[in-house]
Amino acid sequence: MMPGFVLFLISSLTLATVYALVALALNFEAGVDGLWDLGVVSFFAAGAYAYAILTVGPPDQMQVYRLGFGLPLWIGVIGAAGAGTLVAYLIGRASLHLKHVYYLITTFAFAEVIREVLTNERWLTNGTAGMYRMAQPFKSSFETNLYPLVLLLVMVAILVVVFIALNRVTKRPFGRALNALRENEDLAATAGMAPYRYHLRSAMIAGAVAGIAGACYVWFNTVIVPQQFTSSITFVAWTVIVVGGLGNNRGAVLGAFLLILTEDVLRLFDLSSTVAVRVASARVAVIGLILMAVLRWRPRGVLPEKRPRFSRSEALVPAEAPAQGLQQVGSGE
Amino acid sequence: MLETREVSKHFGGVKAVNGVSLMVEEYAIVGLIGPNGAGKTTLFSVISGALSLTSGRVSFEGADISGHRPWEIAEKGVVRTFQTPRGFPRMSVLENMLVFASERTTGFWKNLLAGGRLSAEERRNISRADEILSSVGLLDRRNVLVEELSAGELKLLEFARPLMAKPKMLLLDEPAAGVNPALLEHVVTYITQLRNNGLTFFIVDHNLGFIMDICDHLYVMADGELICSGAPDAVACDPNVIESYIGTKTETTV
Ligand SMILES: Nc1ncnc2c1ncn2[C@@H]1O[C@H](COP(=O)(O)OP(=O)(O)OP(=O)(O)O)[C@@H](O)[C@H]1O
Ligand SMILES: [Mg+2]
User: Fold this and answer.
1) Could you report the predicted ipTM of this complex, rounded to two decimals?
2) Which one of B108, B128, B148, B186 makes the best mutation probe of the A interface by having the most chain A beta carbons within 10 Å?
3) Residues near A250 by Cβ (< 8 Å), separated by ≥ 6?
4) B92 touches chain A (CB under 8 A)
5) What is the pLDDT of residues B120-152, one digit of tens each?
6) pTM of the predicted model as reported, rounded to 2 decimal places
7) Which of A217, A243, B206, B231 could form a disulfide with B252 if both were Cys (CB 3.0 to 4.6 A apart)?
8) Domains in chain A: how many in total?
9) Inside any domain, residue A250
10) Which domain holds residue A82?
């Protein structure tokens, strides 16, 4: 048996991994691009429920949901990414042609709508009673008491893959185009970029990643209920990326671990219920204090966004067909 | 090449641009002058699609472009600069250039799946950017954040950046403002050179010396309307022009 403390730590790290994924998603649309999403939880919830519905078995007598496909778990994960992407696409289609504030409003409103739907459409979600006995990866191949560690490793592997993919795109011309739109949309438009198309893509990428995070969240909890998807997830994700450093993928991951572990350490003490209430509010206060301290001393986050430096030697490949206007250019005095 | 016909832009009761018809010939350097508030910037915004027009028509290479979106017009080869440049403040000078690269490399899947550090296109774009930066004297600032540039450097970058897009026509809004005279001379040579290589310019500026030097043809606006046009030396003598300049703005008169 693993000692309680180790189990607790593993559980905290696993939750932090989920939040790191959500934070990476939010950072991509809000930090790399400049879309202020106040409802990233909708992508997350869509992903979680898509995973649940695709993988869960048929209902027992106590449950009222009709679907439950019992499909393999990797299909569930792909479905989760797809559902997150679809929700992002629908929200983006409706609002990204307009000023950015409409994206903010629409995402915020949609987060409330989707929770209502999850609560009320019981044939789909089993309502507030939720669904349980969710499939977890490699569950049957390991001893029960070792499994939490296995799950953590699986999720860290997913985090690493997602991180590498997003970081790659962030550092390359696609990410640079999003940065440019974030910095000065009118100017970017004169470069021939249609802002809407780029914003829609960045929202959909965020949707996919947050959707995958949703599937991981189901693994972590093994049950799924609408109450798990309140706007506090969005606000924690925002706090994480502001603390970590808006626009910096490493910052998003670091921020998630920093915040979630801090929060959980405060739970470590075994407390009577009256004190527990007080500590619960202290937890919010501690997060708030961390946020304030960072904004005061490191306004661009613990790991501020860094710009790539290109050395001149990297560019020594001669232009294939030099631009007409530029042949004589270097010759100036 | 570029033609506006009876173009108007009204902001409520303010007739910022009112019935302006003008023409910019291919490979020309055409100037547009006029006192503050004459409507020059507004006209540029209308041509480039940043503002919708109230009435009239804009055409480029014979095709109607009125009401087109800014990026569509940019793709056709008409790129404007901004009077108060901000650039992309938290990106480096070089990155500012690369965003405008005509060789587009921003496909998501391509970016995700390609290996290696820098693609060949990217390297070509960087060397092109370096060439352009060196010709406006910004090469050693290439890795500096744009928010750290001086006002003059920002103006130079504003002029250099769109060249990356290989446009057919550049609309420059006050490129000379705040640029030191020695560098300005260099910019004049550069603009002439670019024109000789096939670029067309439409330039707004208050620096009459600069404008007279560089332009083949000049339009003068006041209160939203064109008041005259012609060869630079002829226009300068026109009493209308002198009046509109002396009357409202003295410090920029030559
Ligand atoms: N967005 C706007 N809303 C309302 N009025 C505007 C707007 N933009 C410009 N104007 C008005 O239109 C008129 C023309 O302004 P514009 O900026 O085009 O002049 P300009 O010739 O570029 O002047 P300057 O030499 O100072 O740059 C001014 O009276 C200005 O106040
Ligand atoms: Mg102006």
Assistant:
1) 0.90
2) B108
3) A167, A244, A303
4) yes
5) 888 899 999 999 999 888 999 999 999 999 999
6) 0.89
7) B206
8) 1
9) no
10) 4-230
